[in-house]
Amino acid sequence: MWELKLGAHQIRWPRGAWVGISGPSGCGKTQLLKQIVSGQSGQLQLEYNNLLERPQALRGIGWAAQGAPLWPNQRVEQQLRALAERHKSENWLALAAEFQVLPLLEKPTAILSGGERQRVALLAALLCADKLLILDEPVSALDQQAASEILMALRRAADQRNLSALLVSHQWRDLAASCDFCYQWQSRQTLDINRAQHELTEQSPVQAAALWPVQWCQDRRQWMAAGHAIETGPLPTTINRVSIDAHEVSIARRHPGPSSIANTLQVEIGKITALDKTSALLTLHWGELRLYSLITHRAVRALDLTPGLGVFAQFKAHAVKSPQA
Fold it and tell me: Which long-range CB contacts under 8 A does 50-54 form with residues at least 24 apart?
C-alpha cells in the first residue's frame, strides 16, 4: 500500500494502481509532484518505508516533468541506452518500438517536436522507475489518438512491473482512460475513478457520460461489461474501460424488439434531474453500473417516467468509445 503525506495532502492507494490528481490550474499540483521527486520532508511510504528519506537516485521514481526536458547535446539513442544500462533494462528497444520512439533514435534531443519529446521522456521515466511513475501533463503535446496509444503502452508496461503512478492532467479523458483512482485537490478526497466520473456528472450534467470497466473476451471476440457482452465499434483491445455519452442513450417503456441499435439493456431509473426548460438527465442503474440518458421533459411526461421505474435503455455500438475518443 502507498501512502503520501505532504503538507495538507494525504493520498492512499494500492500498489500497482494509478492515481490521477485533479484540480484547477495554478492550485499547486505540479509543485506537489516536484516535492515528491526532490523533497526531503513529508512521507511517501510503500509498505511503511518512507522513500523521501532516501537519496533521490535511490527512490525508484521515474519522473516525466511538464515540458518533457531531456539531456542536451545528445542523440535520443545515447540518452535511452545510458538509462537502460544504468537501470539494467534489457528490453528498452522493444519498449522504444511500443512508444513509437525507434524512428527518433538518431535524432539530437534538441530538435525533437513537443510530441516526440514527450514520447522519449515517458520512455526515459519508465526505464528509471522500479516503484513509481510521476507524470505531469505527460501527453499534452499529442493528439487524442496518439495520447491514448502512448498512455495505454505506458500503462501496460507499468502493469507488467507492478509500477504505480501519480498523474496530473488538465484533460479528464487522460485520467479516465488510464487511472484507477482520482485525488480531488479541493476536497482532498481519493475516489475510485468511476465514482469520480459520477461526481463530475453531478457537477456538470450537460456533459454526462458513463464510465464502464470492460474486458475483451478473446474467445467470444466481444467486449464484456459486468459479465455481459456489449456491442461496440472498433476499439483497441488494450483499453480497460469505455465511455458512453448521455445523449447517445434512448429510453423505451417496453422492449423495442429487433432494431439496428445494437445494445438494449433493462435498467432502473435512479434519478431524474431537470437541466433547463427543455432537457432532463436520467441516472440509470444497470446492476452496479450507472448509465445516463439526456432526454426532453416532453419525453419524460409522454413515457410517464419516475424514479424506481424499470425501463429499457438503448445505445448504438459506435456510442461505446474509449474515454479518450
Answer: 51/131, 51/132
Angle at 174 between CA 35 and CA 139, to 5 degrees: 70
Using an 8 Å Cβ cutoff, are 51 and 44 in contact? yes
DSSP string of 74-89, one letter each residue: SBHHHHHHHHHHHTT-
Instruction: Decide if 68 contacts 124 (C-beta within 8 A).
Output: no
Residue 105: other Cβ atoms inside 10 A: 16
CATH level 2 (architecture), domain 2-192: 3-Layer(aba) Sandwich (3.40)
Question: Which grid coordinates are listed for 85?
Answer: 544500462
- Output phi, psi for 130, to 5 deg: -125, 0
Residue spans in the chain of domains classed CATH 2.40.50.100: 206-321
Q: Which amino acid is at 265?
A: L
Q: From first to last of the 325 residues of the chain, give the pLDDT tens digit.
A: 999 999 899 999 999 999 999 999 899 999 999 999 988 788 999 988 999 999 888 899 999 999 889 988 899 999 999 999 999 988 999 999 999 999 999 999 999 999 999 999 999 999 999 999 999 999 999 998 899 889 989 999 999 999 999 999 999 989 999 999 999 999 999 999 989 998 888 888 888 999 999 999 988 889 999 999 999 999 887 788 999 999 999 999 999 988 899 999 999 999 999 999 999 999 999 999 999 999 999 999 999 999 999 999 999 999 999 887 6
How far is residue 292 from each of residues 115, 228, 312, 319, 323, measured CA to CA in Å?
Answer: 35, 18, 12, 12, 15
CATH 3.40.50.300-classified regions of the chain: 2-192
Question: DSSP readout, 257-323?
Answer: -S-S--EEEEEEEEEEEE-SSSEEEEEEEETTEEEEEEEEHHHHHHTT--TT-EEEEEE-GGGEE-T
| Annotation: CATH topology of 206-321 | OB fold (Dihydrolipoamide Acetyltransferase, E2P) (2.40.50)
